[in-house]
Amino acid sequence: MTDLGMPAIPASRSQLVTPGLAFSNWGHHFTAEQNLDLKAAVKAARAPLSVIVQVTKRCNFGCSFCSETLQIPDPTLKELELMRLHLAGVPRIFLSGGEPLMRKDFGEIVDMYYEDHILAVPTNATHGLQHAKGIAGKIAFANIGLEGPRTTTTRVRGNYDQIMAGVHALKDAGIPLSLSAVVYRSTLSALPFTCQIADVLEAGKVKLIMPLRKGNALDLDENEFISDTEAAETFARLSELRTIHGWRPALRMTTWTPENEGHMIVIEPNGVARAWPVYDAPDLWERLGNVLEEPIEAIWERYRFKENHFAKYLGRSIRTTTHTEAGR
Ligand code: SF4
């Protein structure tokens, strides 16, 4: 327990998931032995490494890149319990949205899932104050969407000051943080500030993601989408700045190459599991099954992006640096 009487966040550097594969509590990502045979690991797997469970589609923001523009009623706690039973064997679960912290019973959902899974919570943090104490010590990290300084974040995503108020509430409760920034051409100059903010917050990582052409992003100016070459140059420049300035958070950048197609498994509020993003599919989704009706093993069996899934989550198909420990 901490001095504040809250459960302590596990201090260990990493936790073993399967032989040869661990989850880093510092950088908030999976790590594998260097000589891990990816194809063999995929062949041996009976379930995904990570799934995204949408506990709601509702959100109080309207980010300019948001793909979640269609509404589905929230799953009940009973349905979430059935999903949990069918997700046995999945090491990490993102309790996601929409904005997951908009659910008043979010603490109960965390209580339902945290003993069997590494939990991560992607959030805009604006409801952080309501939930921070109830989920502290139970989630591995909160992944905050933040495009950098006030003007940029407010323009691209939503109210920076509301986000940061929630971020401070989560941090004060001892919840480990990571940041996630969607990269536009017009936000490139803000990225070093994003890294600096992440460093000040002692975040585990900064995830840089290119927008996908879906939902609100269909209205973006074409000029906002940078090429893969520009993304590579951006990552190289940020990595260099990271060294110069001594930023500790890991950097991870995902671009939409064939190696990353369909790597995510998203469970919608109605239990429908989908591979995402599938580039030539309508709405970039490919239906895989329903976790209210069948266990994840059955869905995993028919999932055709297994290798992309493992390669992405093990950092082999994306650009990465690792978290730097204090004192190094
Ligand atoms: S991207 Fe996330 S925070 Fe933004 S509107 Fe969509 S669900 Fe809400």
Automatic annotation (TrEMBL):
Annotated SUPFAM superfamilies? Radical SAM enzymes (SSF102114)
CDD domains assigned to the protein according to its UniProt record, in alphabetical order: Radical_SAM
Q: Which UniProt keywords apply?
A: Iron, Iron-sulfur, Metal-binding, S-adenosyl-L-methionine
Q: Which domain of life is it from?
A: Bacteria
Taxon lineage = Bacteria, Bacillati, Actinomycetota, Actinomycetes, Kitasatosporales
Q: Where is the Radical SAM core domain?
A: 43-245
Q: Which organism is it from?
A: Streptomyces mashuensis
What is the gene name?
A: pqqE
- Pfam families on file: Radical_SAM
Gene3D superfamilies attached here?
Aldolase class I
Any idea which GO molecular function terms this record carries? catalytic activity; iron-sulfur cluster binding; metal ion binding
- Name-wise, this protein is Coenzyme PQQ synthesis protein E
